[in-house]
Amino acid sequence: MTAPVLIMGAHGGIGEALARRLSAAGYPLVLSARDPSTIQPLAEATGASAVACDVMDPESIRSAVESAQAEQGLAGLAYCVGNIVLKPLKSIKDADLIDCFRLNTVGAALAVQAATPALKQARGSVVMFSTVAAGQGFGNHAVISAAKGGVEALARSLATDLAPEVRVNCIAPSITDTGIASSLLSSEPMANALAGAHPLKRVGAADDHAAMAAFLLGPDAGWITGQVFPVDGGRGALRAKGQ
To answer: Which terminus, N or C, of the chain has the lesser number of Cβ atoms within 10 Å?
Structure first.
């Protein structure tokens, strides 16, 4: 048996799409969520194990990683946990910043810290998730941009610390049709406007990001580390016609 890949935040969205893609490619998987009952159907469909993990609790992170690793170590860690916090500066509370940073940045750092021995044993790979807003000045994005900017810096730093045994990369999506974006996409006019802001004229799909994550976790990306990959319909580098 080969070492498994641990997907943290496998309940819906990108984590679920990644689990289905990796399972189809034959990877053994361990899936985590705060409530493992929410991912049990996915675990059964992908032949994965399901473990509980509250990424706001350091001990829960360590326990989940310990439960996930096999004798061969861990072949990969995908930290697919995230949120979208949109507030104008005048409305931001210190708890908004602290909680967002803990969820997105601290959780990722502690997950990799806990998994490092197992990842080194299997010469594994790590994938984290940022946002196009970390590199662009979008209004009302101060909370999430600050936290995800930290994720990008973390990925580069950890890629240095863990080389040559472990590769660490980051994906920066734009708005994607997942549960955490439902409030932004539930209005048809808003959804159309957001799609039109991208040169490719649509919002992202979870599998757009899962495809890149699966590549980065696999052997074909064996000489890639310390990078942030925009998977954003061109929004970060281009301007849509008429914008």
So the answer is: N
State the pairing for strand pair 125-129/76-79.
parallel
Count each helix (H run) and each strand (E run) in the chain, helices first: 9, 7
Tokens for 93? 């509370």
DSSP-H helix ranges across the chain: 13-24, 40-46, 58-68, 94-101, 107-122, 142-162, 182-185, 188-196, 206-217
- What the block records as the tokens of 43 is 């675990």
Alpha helices in 106-141 (DSSP H): 107-122
Residue for token digits 């954003």? 232
Give the chain's residues under pLDDT 70: 1, 242-243
Report helix, strand or coil for 125: strand
Specify the pLDDT at position 194. 87
List the structure tokens of 37: 């009952």
What is the rounded distance in angstroms from the CA atom of residue 235 to the CA atom of residue 128? Answer: 20
139 SS3 class: coil
Dihedral over Cα of 183, 22, 160, 66: its sign: positive
Q: What pLDDT is attached to residue 153? A: 98
Provide the token pair at 24: 């189809």
> Which pLDDT does position 38 carry in this prediction?
95
Residue 91: predicted pLDDT: 97
By CB atoms closer than 10 A (0-12, 13-18, 19+), residue 48 is buried
> What's this model's pTM, rounded to 2 decimal places?
0.95
